[in-house]
């Protein structure tokens, strides 16, 4: 894969991944063939900032966890009203890294 194309992808999508994962992502993208490139570009990554905003506004209902694909945790938060509020507050600090982790899993699945 062309390094310029990979660098443009990294610049456009670096906010969706943890900063320590970027070099490994770049290396893996340089080694993929052209047929997988279109699939990698078309993946729908979740925005960590959006997850944080949803967590602050409606985290007690588990909507933040449903958005990133953690259905079981979303149901748990919904049934316990956000862990009686405690779980919701903890998620304000953890939801962005959980979103980035889900994005990395999505990328690994595509590669």
Give a short summary of the structure.
This protein has 111 residues and is an all-alpha fold. The protein has one domain. The protein is built from 8 helices and no strands.
Can you offer a commentary on this structure?
The protein is an all-alpha fold. The protein has one domain. The protein contains 8 helices and no strands. The chain has helices spanning 3-13, 22-31, 34-41, 48-58, 63-68, 71-79, 81-84, 86-110. Helix 4 (48-58) runs antiparallel to helix 8. The longest helix has 25 residues, at 86-110. The chain is elongated. The model has no long low-confidence stretch (mean pLDDT 86).
Q: Which value, in Å, is the CA radius of gyration?
A: 16 Å
Q: Helix coverage percent of residues?
A: over 70%
Task: Return the string of H and E elements.
Answer: HHHHHHHH
Q: Specify the overall morphology.
A: elongated
Key terms for this structure?
single chain, 111 residues, TM2, transmembrane, TM2 domain-containing protein
Layout of SSEs?
Layout: H1 3-13, H2 22-31, H3 34-41, H4 48-58, H5 63-68, H6 71-79, H7 81-84, H8 86-110
Helix pairs in contact: 1-2, 4-8
């Amino acid at each position: 894969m062309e390094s310029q194309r990979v660098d443009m992808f990294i610049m456009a999508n670096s906010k969706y991944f943890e900063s320590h994962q970027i070099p490994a992502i770049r290396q893996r993208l340089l080694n993929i063939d052209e047929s997988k490139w279109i699939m990698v570009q078309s993946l729908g990554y979740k925005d960590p900032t959006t997850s944080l905003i949803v967590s602050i506004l409606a985290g007690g209902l588990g909507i933040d966890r449903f958005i990133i694909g953690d259905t079981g945790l979303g149901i748990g938060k919904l049934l316990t009203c956000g862990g009686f509020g405690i779980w919701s507050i903890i998620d304000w600090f953890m939801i962005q890294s959980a979103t980035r982790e889900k994005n990395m899993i999505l990328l690994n699945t595509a590669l």
